[in-house]
């Protein structure tokens, strides 16, 4: 896998700074590749941070306390029947 520059700015720098000396050109390509990777990482991190700051979250729903009921029924002689229901739940009876 060879080293390749991805951004046009870094490609232009490589073209302008290369001398035709193989070891210099290879060293220059390595340094520019390393710089380009860091540059892309920083730009991506900044873009994500900016996007996260711009996100508007919906408001949290109001906390609703459940309704606890305790009744003594025919089936339970010693222990009461305990129910935990949401306040918007309407008990319409058994409709099977």
Textual characterization of the structure:
This protein is mainly α and 96 residues long. The protein has a domain at 8-54. Helix content is 45%, strand content 10%. The protein has 2 helices and 2 strands. The chain has helices at 8-17, 22-54; strands at 67-71, 81-85. It has a two-stranded antiparallel sheet with strand order 1-2. The mean pLDDT is 84.
C-alpha geometry: rod-shaped
Number of strands: 2
Strand order of the largest sheet: 1-2
**Helix proportion:** 40-55%
Q: Low-confidence runs (pLDDT<50, min 5 residues)? A: none
Which percent range describes the beta-strand content?
5-15%
Order of helices and strands: HHEE
Rounded to the nearest angstrom, the radius of gyration is 34 Å
Distance between the termini: 69 Å
Q: What is the mean predicted local confidence, pLDDT?
A: 84
Question: Number of helical segments?
Answer: 2
Structural class: mainly alpha
Major beta sheet summary: 2 strands, antiparallel
Question: Layout of helices and strands, plus pairs?
Answer:
Blueprint (H helix, E strand, L loop, with lengths): L7 H10 L4 H33 L12 E5 L9 E5 L11
Antiparallel strand pairs: 1-2
Give the structure's gist in a few sentences.
With 96 residues, this protein is mainly α. The chain is built from 2 helices and 2 strands, in the order ααββ.
